[in-house]
């Protein structure tokens, strides 16, 4: 009798483990059975409205309100699903994929909200490679959009300061959508704002150290395109005195802890 009870208990535990495993590790796909509208011009206006209505000046997102009223976001995602960015100009394509990434991050969060971090949505970074979304007639994960499209096809280190992973360690989410006309301005201002934020980049002259966001460690190779490395890149965006210090002194990099807390507007 004792052995039978133990056997049943083991089966129950195994079943529970299997359910938890499937929940945390399964691939989730957002499906949209849509047809493109012939002759319809693609627009980011709906996403711009979503950002204006739900993102504050600090880049915090009102996920609770957006989850309760997702209609505009969903309508924008419907447009993304059937769009043909290949027909767009270079700048328009870059704006398209940056907007798509940021919008899909928001979608992934509200689908699993409430949560305090994207790392709690799927274990071991699965938020970025086990959630799948339809864009331009294909299915992509967030990692595929970032690494296989944006980083691979556009090769511009400044994109790391406009791609927002719904975390406080990320760059702040802007409350306006990107467009072909404004993409260069966006990239420059976002990079300048990030690099000149002492919470992201901080010089310690006495110790000859530079404390940096881990973004500069994770994507170190991206800062060699047109630059001699991270220090050379930073010099373009730091105040003159700090840029000269980097150029003349041998400094060591120290990387700051990355804050994965959700960029939630709601006060806990």
Explain the overall architecture:
The protein is 46% helix and 9% strand. With 268 residues, it is mostly helical. It folds into two domains: 169 residues, no CATH class; 56 residues, no CATH class. The protein has a three-stranded mixed sheet with strand order 1-2-3. The protein is globular, with a radius of gyration of 21 Å.
% residues in beta strands: 5-15%
Using the CA coordinates, give the radius of gyration.
21 Å
Helix share bin: 40-55%
How many β-strand stretches?
Answer: 6
SSE run: HEHHHHHEEHHEEHHHE
Instruction: Please list the strands of the largest sheet in the order they lie side by side.
Output: 1-2-3
How confident is the prediction overall: mean pLDDT? 90
Largest sheet: 3 strands, mixed
- Determine the structural class based on helices, strands and strand pairing: mainly alpha
What spatial form do the alpha-carbon principal axes imply? globular
Low-confidence stretches: 7-12, 14-25
Q: What is the first-to-last residue Cα distance?
A: 50 Å
Number of folding domains? Answer: 2
- Helix count, per DSSP? 11
